[in-house]
Every structure is written in C-alpha cells, then in structure tokens.
C-alpha cells in the first residue's frame, strides 16, 4: 500500500488499509473510498463518503456491521473499479489532524469532518 496524503477544503486525508477502514466504519467514523489508481478530490469526484450512522436502518448487530462494510466495498469495486486504468480495488482515506509534542508528531482522526 502506498502512503498518500491529500489536502482538501482544509482537511488532511491519509490513506489507510482495509482493516483500519473497517474498524473506523464500525466505530461510526466517516471513511472516504476511491478507486486505487485515481486521486480523490479531483473535479470528477471518484470518491464516496461512507458512514455507518447514515446507514443505521440496515445494521442489526456486530456481524451485520462487518457484512455491511463488505457489501458496500464489493458494490463500490464492482461499479467503480472495472479495469486497470481506474484500478482493480478500492483505496481508503480518513481525515487526520496532526499535532506535535516534545516526543514527535502524532496524528488522530479529525472529528470536525463529520460535522460538516
């Protein structure tokens, strides 16, 4: 997985792996999904925001959350990742906020992205 960071509308987005995106989705955070060879936040808008809170009527239990994330990703990849030009799989991005301390620079999820 390539490490990418993008800035868009004052937010910094960092690429994460699928397991990290699944955990973020399970905890109710917003995850941005995009085909792997396309850059998110371009004029063509190949990205989509997925959030569990907006799909609560479909979720039953913890197993349903995992299945819901997998179904969303499978549907996205089927329709948006058909060839090698766009990429054969999805890439996941989360908004992060960097802050510095004496012992280094750290990042955490930027919760203000969910309030927009």
Distance between the termini: 29 Å
- What's the alpha carbon Rg, rounded to whole Å? 15 Å
Classify the secondary structure makeup into a structural class: alpha+beta
Q: How many individual helices?
A: 2
Which strand-content bin applies to the residues?
25-35%
Number of strands: 6
- Return the average pLDDT rounded to an integer: 85
Provide the succession of SSEs. Answer: EEHEEHEE
Regions with pLDDT < 50 over 5+ consecutive residues? none
Shape type: globular
**Helical percentage:** 10-25%
Largest sheet: 6 strands, antiparallel
Structure in words:
The protein contains two helices and six strands, in the order E-E-H-E-E-H-E-E. It has 116 residues and is of the alpha+beta class. Strands 1, 2, 3, 4, 5 and 6 form a six-stranded antiparallel β-sheet that branches. It is globular and about 45 Å long. The mean pLDDT is 85.
Q: Which features characterize this protein?
A:
116 residues, alpha+beta, six-stranded antiparallel beta sheet, 6 strands
Question: What's the gist of this structure?
Answer:
This protein is of the alpha+beta class and 116 residues long. It contains two helices and six strands; from the N terminus they run ββαββαββ.
